[in-house]
Amino acid sequence: MKEILQKLDKLSTARPLEIIRKKKEGSKVVEFFGDFVPEQWITAAGAESYLIMKGGDPQPPEATLDYMLRFMNPLAASMAGSYLLGLDAIMPIADSVTIQQHDSHYGRMTEILEYKGLPVYKVGVPADYTVDISREYYRHELREFRAMLENLVGHPISDDDIRANYAKTNRINELLRKIDELRKQDNPPITFSDFIKLNHYTLRLDYDTSIEALEQIYEELKNAPGAHAADAPRILIMGRAVALGDYQVPTIIENAGGSIVCEFLDEAIRPFKNDISTEGDVVDAYASAIYDNRVPQCIFQPAWETRFEHLKELIKEYRIDGVLWYQLAFDEIYDMEHTCLSKWIAETGVPLMKLESSYEYSREAVAPLTTRLESFVESLKEAK
Q1: Where in 34-138 does DSSP place strands (E)?
Q2: pLDDT tens for residues 92-136?
Q3: Mean pLDDT across the chain, nearest whole number?
Q4: How far is it, in rounded angstroms, from Cα 51 to Cα 39?
Q5: Given this model, what pLDDT does residue 173 score?
Q6: Which residues contact 74 (CB under 8 A, 6 or more apart)?
Q7: Residues contacting residue 208 through CB under 8 Å, at least 6 positions apart
Q8: For a pLDDT cut of 70, what percent of the chain falls above it?
Q9: pTM of the predicted structure, to 2 decimals
C-alpha cells in the first residue's frame, strides 16, 4: 500500500501542472470549494476541476490580515491567504472560482477574492435545511450553477455524462466504505493518517485513477495485519475538517499509541457514505443525497441533537474509547456545539478532549501540543 500512496501523492502534487498545461491547450478551469458544489458537473462539462482544501500552514491565514479581521477560521482564511501569497497555482488562471456560501467565514474570504478581481461564483446553501423553501432554494442555486458552467464552456452539459460521473463517484464511495469497514476490526490495517490522505487524493485525481488505486488498496488491506499497537485506544475525531496537509495532530496521536478509527468531519473529506442516485433528475439526485438526507453539518440548524445521536451511533459501531474534538480557531459555531456536546457526552461516560488549532505548528507550539495529546492517549489506555 505504501507504494500506491506514494504514487497518488506524486500525482496529486503534479495536478496543478497538469491543469496549467490543459489551460494552455484551451480547457476551462474551475477551482471550487465545498461538497455543495457538484464536482461531477464540472467534469461532465469538460472543464478541469480543482478543490480548495489546503490547510495546516499558519502563513496563509496571517496574509489575510491586511484585508480582514483576524477572527476567521484558518481553513477558510487559507483559501484567500494562499492566493495572496502565490501558493495557489490554480486560482490566478481559473475561469471560475466557485465557493459555497454556507457560513460567514467563507463568505468573508470570498469577499477578499472578489476584491482582488477574481471570477468568483457563489453557490448559496441555506442553513435551515429542514424546510421546503431552503431545499428549493438550494436546487435553484444548483440550476444557476449549471447554467454558469454551460455558458463558461459554450455548450450544454449532458445529463447522461453527469449520471456517469455520479456512478464513478459512487464507486469511489463504495471502495472507501469497504476500507472504512476494516477500521472496525480490533486492530485496523490502516491508520487515520493514511485514510484521510486517501480521501484527499480522490478529491484531487481523476475518477478512474482513484477507483483503480482504491481497488488495489482494498485487496491489500482486507487480509493485512493491524497497523497499530495491540489494544490501542480507539479514538473518534470530530470537527470541521482535517484539511490537506494538516496531519500533525493525527500523527502525534498515532505515534503515542492511539488509533483514530473513525471521523465525524464536515469538510475536506469525500462524503463517502452518501451515494447519489443515477436515476431521475440530476439536480434532485444531487440535492437529495448531499443536502436533504445527509447528516447535517454543524452550521446547519437545527442540527446539534441530530449530530449527537449520530455520534452515539458511531461510538457504538466503532467501539470508541474516547472522542477528540478538533476545532479550528475562531470557529464560534463549533465552539457553541462543543458546549452542548460536552454536557451530553459526559452522561455517556465517553471521555472527550477539546483541541483548538490555528495551524501553528512551530517547535514551541508542538511541544505542549504533543504533551496534551500523549496524556489523552495514556488516560484512555489506563481506562481500557
Answers
A1: 48-51, 96-101, 120-124
A2: 999 999 999 999 999 999 999 999 999 999 999 999 999 999 999
A3: 97
A4: 8
A5: 99
A6: 55, 58, 60, 61, 328, 329, 330, 357, 358, 359
A7: 168
A8: 100
A9: 0.96
**Ordered structural domains, the chain, with CATH:** 14-153 (3.40.50.11890)
Residues 6+ apart with CB under 8 A from 117: none
In one-letter notation, the amino acid at residue 267 is: E
d(CA 234, CA 314): 12
Q: What's the N-to-C CA distance of the chain in angstroms?
A: 30
Peptide bond into 74 cis (omega under 30): no
Give pLDDT tens digits for 237-273. 999 999 999 999 999 999 999 999 999 999 999 999 9
Query: How many other C-beta atoms are found inside a 10 Å radius of the C-beta of residue 356?
Result: 15
Q: How far apart are CA 182 and CA 86, in angstroms?
A: 40
User: pLDDT digit string (tens) for 307-332?
Assistant: 999 999 999 999 999 999 999 999 99
Q: Are 144 and 36 in contact (CB under 8 A)?
A: no
Distance CA 364, CA 384 (A): 32
Q: How far apart are CA 380 and CA 133, in angstroms?
A: 45
- C-alpha cell recorded at residue 174: 463504495
Which residues lie below 8 Å from residue 255, measured CB to CB, with a gap of 6+?
A: none
Q: How many CB atoms lie within 10 A of CB 354?
A: 15
The phi and psi torsions of 244 (rounded to 5 degrees) equal -60, 120
CA dist 146 and 139 (Å) reads 11
pLDDT at 54: 97
Q: How far is CA 144 from the centre of its chain?
A: 24
